[in-house]
Amino acid sequence: MRSSFQFSVSSFEKRLLSAILLLMFALPLTGAGADRFNTLGHRMMCSCGCGQVLLECNHVGCPRSDGMRNELATGIERGDSDDLVLQSFVQKYGATILAAPTTTGFNRVAWVMPFLALAAGLSVAIFFIRRWGKMRAAETPTPSAIDSTFREQARRETEL
Amino acid sequence: MPTFGSFALIIALVLAVYSFLAGTAGLILLRRGGPQRAWAALKLNETARRAGIAVFFAVTAAAFVLLHAAITNDFSVAYILHHSNRALPLPYKVAALWSGQEGSLLFWAWLLSSYGLVLRLRHKVDVRLVAHASVILAAIQVFFLLLLNFAALPFALMTGPMARDGNGLNPLLQYAEMVIHPPMLYLGYVGFSVPFAFALGALIMKYPGEKWIHITRRWTMVTWLFLGCGIALGSHWAYSVLGWGGYWGWDPVEDASLMPWITGTAFLHSVMMQEKRGMLKVWNIWLIFITFMLSILGTLLTRSGIISSVHAFAQSPIGNWFGIFLALIFVVCCFFFIKNRDHLKSENRLEALVSRESSFLFNNLLLLAACFTILWGTLFPLLSEWVQGTKVTVGPPFFNRVTIPIFLGLLLLTALGPLLSWRKTSLDSLRRNFAVPAIISVTAGVLMIAFGMKPWREISEAYSWMAIVLAVLVTSTIFSEFWRGARVIDSHTGEGILRGMIHLTHRNTRRYGGYIVHFGMVVIAIGLAGAAFNQDKEQELGNGESMSIGAYTLVCKSYSQDDNANYEDESAIVDVFKGGKFLTTMYPERRFYKASQQASTMVANHSMLREDLYLVYTGRNEGSDKPILRVHLNPLVMWLWVGVWIFVIGTLVALVPNKAAVSLRKPVQEQVAAMAEGD
Question: pTM for this structure?
Answer without folding.
Answer: 0.86
